[in-house]
Amino acid sequence: MKWTAAKLRSQKGTRKISMVTAYDALSASLVDQAGIPVVLVGDSLGNTVLGYGNTLPVTMEEMLHHTAAVARGTTDALIIADMPFMSYQASVESGVINAGRFLKESGADAVKIEGGMMRAGLIETLTQNGIPVLGHIGLTPQSVKEMGYRVQGKTSEQARQLMDDAMAVEQAGAFAVVLECVPPELGEAISRSLSIPTIGIGAGAGCDGQVLVFTDLLGLSDRPVAKFVKKFANLHPLMIEALTAYKTEVEAGSYPSEEHQY
Length: 262
Ligand code: KIV
Description:
The protein is an alpha/beta fold. It has one domain (5-235): TIM Barrel (Alpha-Beta Barrel), CATH 3.20.20. Helix content is 41%, strand content 15%. The chain contains 11 helices and 8 strands. The protein has helices at residues 5-9, 25-33, 45-48, 60-72, 92-105, 120-128, 144-147, 156-172, 184-193, 214-217, 235-252; strands spanning 17-21, 38-41, 78-82, 110-114, 133-138, 176-180, 198-201, 209-212. Strands 1-2-3-4-5-6-7-8 form an 8-stranded parallel β-barrel, surrounded by 6 helices. The chain starts with a helix and ends in a 10-residue tail after the last helix. 3-methyl-2-oxobutanoic acid (KIV) is lined by residues 21, 42-44, 82, 178, 180, 201, 211, 213.
């Protein structure tokens, strides 16, 4: 059965939520077939698939194109599209227009927006206009030039600010919030204080759910991964091995053999 934002929200306190990123129909169908209830078309598309150094260059057109592919590969999972850098920062109006495009043009069910209190106005306008929003606070990769890729909320002042951000996102109407790279105690405290689910990434086991990047979780790349990543498979060497075996057989003339010919 198709997941909705409301159904996901109602899982709080009932069961832990798993979420994975996907960027095309194939990866999305694998996530969907595994019974994972949420596919996030993350703007990590930029650094995992498109070869950019970070998420900043990712455009609306790229996100729409990949979200539509994910929608074609999914039947049950809730599809959340990440609003890319500069698609909502300039004004609430630009955010509403671009968020609307994800629902109208790409088949997304909801959008994700980085930022706490400062985005409350936008989140409120979107949710009041029927666009479900997943918030995202803590380490927000679109602010990498300003905050770097550092654990957030380590001082009591920062922790208080993040708690206020989480409350503001909830009050503005978000159905859940991603907490990225915060100490586990803070992840747990925010999760206990909110009535919407928290989805952690590097935020400890006290969150209501977890999200990981598809390529990290499956070990598809040989690039170093963050401390919070667990590789549930290490497919990169297997893929290199298969490709090398193919090359060797083609060069030796042993592929295609009789069984692979008409
Ligand atoms: O872009 C992304 O993949 C994200 C995460 C929360 C995993 O924002």
